[in-house]
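Worked problem 6 (solution included).
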Amino acid sequence: MIAWRGIIEEYRKFLPVTDQTPIVTLTEGNTPLIPARRLARHITPRLDLYLKFEGANPTGSFKDRGMTVAISKAVEEGAKAVICASTGNTSASAAAYAAKAGIECGVLVPEGAIALGKLAQALVHGARVIQVLGNFDAALHMARELVERYPVTLVNSVNPHRIEGQKTAAFEVCDELAGPPDALAIPVGNAGNITAWWRGFTEYDAAPLLYGFQAEGAAPLVLGKPVPEPETIASAIRIGNPARWEDAMDAVTASRGRIAAVSDQQILDAYHLLASREGVFCEPASAASVAGILAHGLPAPDGGSPPESVVCVLTGHGLKDPDTALGKAPSVIGCEAELGAVERVVFGDD
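Solution. The predicted structure is:
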């Protein structure tokens, strides 16, 4: 049996690497595609619903797919340092892969807008983390300015190598299902991931419907204009002016899909449903994909038949945001260290 070696070795012929590229990998990819039969019953009978759980990547999010390619190419090009702006997952991934490569990493994060689990990852991997008094869009603007002035490589999704790596998730889904699903539902923040999935599908000669979902308080693609002060509990998609705006809209249009918004309450309802009905613990932003199809259904283009097979992308692990999980969960029950007391708590007084 050949061990999995990461997305670059698995899909090398589709990626911008050569024999001279030093491969920096944490054996990312090969994430679970989980059937969600109980959840499917909430949507429509006879639906084949799957969850692509990207939280199983090494740093707990889909960002690792793009980062292995971006960091490998940066090292090949002689970079000694990388930088990114981040709401959390990019910072964790960049810091880990930079550490693996033996290069420096700088991270700009919006003040008070990064989940605790993600911040801990970036710090423990040795990144220099700077908290910016502004939102993500301001942080990304400054990161781009720094790249113009200093010899560092930007590893946000504007870096084309990030998109190249992230497209491999579409390859995996097609390989596992022996063909593409009828539709893909995906959260949309900075819009790099929906862009990457569509690129992957097209390179596999596939064209499923794309359903992209944003949070109502951070839905510039739905509104058709930037949101100056985006707000949502789903911190990973709290972005008001996506860097891949045009690419994402081109992908949705080409797939004959749609972009729609979901409320924070709908996101949290889907978040709890995934954990309690399917045993999958994802971060809140991930649940936007499921919240979207629960709220908006599965519309078909041009009056055609609705999709019968759908993949929902869950972009990150629930442990990325422990504060939200604990804040919304039931309280721990205290009990004396005595069997009868434990029995009464577990089974009731009867």
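Discussion: The radius of gyration is 20 Å.
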